[in-house]
């Protein structure tokens, strides 16, 4: 009988300097990010900024941050802040990023990095011009399972990749004022959730040659359901997202010699199955890897911060595993899909 494949272990992470972080946008994901840094790293969160000082003060008290301030400009003007984590609504990402970069601060911007390809390109150009680091906070790229998957693909354990599929969607109660459905805040399934499967596909196949989107719009004009077919020279990919369907949140990569299935939810620490047989259906000889490192899944948000700190310490202006070019291309795919759907 042929031997079962061996799944590689995640590679050791390089040490990173302890940087001082400022938070722009004291919302839910920012709270999880700060808590993860407190519990799992020596990164220091020294300030939080909001246009509403009371909101910044409440967030600072809840997350043990020493300095709340009442404006983005005040936050980026603090000498003690090395890097700014931007978690404001999607429509404000460019303005907040430019404000921080022009103040001499490195930036990590929540996904989607920007709403348009032109905006992404412009912000990255400004970062490079100023000699500053800029990165999208696509935390899935820095999970241990992402490195395991990268090693599997580098070793060609499943042969040539010919198919990738990923999804992320959930049922959201319709509220035209909520950021998910409000076009003025960059609402819609694609920008909020669809960025995950599109980015996953990009991590495997790169930028597609063509994008074809089908879906539907909510009453406010934002997309609430979408399927993207992405074409490549020798591969096909499919990304599905929704605000009105409970999707399985899985990802699969098919190749000429086998396949990898990433466990649900693949967007946070989970595990994967590797089959090195060119067969359909269950493989009794498939092997598994499971990530059991963290009891709290969202503590994995600290991985991206440590990666960013390490790159900044090396004097880099971009993440070598999630480059400016790739991030811009992903934003471009989302923009094309939204345009095809007629989304606001």
Looking at this protein, list some descriptive labels.
Rossmann fold, 8-stranded mixed beta sheet, single chain, 22% strand, Dihydrodipicolinate Reductase, domain 2, 2 domains, 344 residues, Gfo/Idh/MocA_domain, 9 helices, oxidoreductase, nucleotide binding
Structural overview:
This protein is of the alpha/beta class. The protein has 2 domains: 120 residues, NAD(P)-binding Rossmann-like Domain (Rossmann fold, 3-Layer(aba) Sandwich), CATH 3.40.50; 171 residues, Dihydrodipicolinate Reductase, domain 2, CATH 3.30.360.10. Helices cover 32% and strands 22% of the residues. It has 9 helices and 14 strands. The strands form 2 sheets. Strands 8-9-10-7-11-12-13-14 form an 8-stranded mixed β-sheet, with helices on one face. Strands 3-2-1-4-5-6 form a 6-stranded parallel β-sheet, with helices on both faces. Helix 1 links the parallel strand 1 and strand 2. Helix 4 packs parallel to helix 5 and helix 5 runs antiparallel to helix 9. The longest helix is centred in the last third of the chain and has 18 residues. The termini are far apart. The model has no long low-confidence stretch (mean pLDDT 97).
